[in-house]
Design brief:
Blueprint lengths: L23 H12 L5 E8 L2 E8 L8 H4 L1
Antiparallel strand pairs: 1-2
């Protein structure tokens, strides 16, 4: 992904690593996911460093048993 100029990251409200805290823009989309449980993804047009692009947000479902090790 990086060779094509893409990056990926996982955000969480309850994060162990401060690097996984949502930015203000990510927090807005996170709130939409919380408000609308059926929403699977959201695409947002952005401009960063003078370059236009898109941010793609995808919901990641986590089963309760996953949280034993990962939560």
């Amino acid at each position: 992904a990086e060779e094509h100029g893409y990056t990926a990251r996982q955000i969480a409200k309850k994060h162990r690593n401060p690097k996984n805290a949502p930015s203000p823009a990510e927090a807005e989309v996170y709130a939409l996911f919380e408000k609308e449980p059926g929403m699977a993804s959201k695409i947002v047009a952005t401009t960063e460093d003078g370059r236009e692009g898109h941010r793609v947000f995808v919901r990641i479902a986590v089963a309760k048993q996953c949280l034993h090790c990962h939560g």
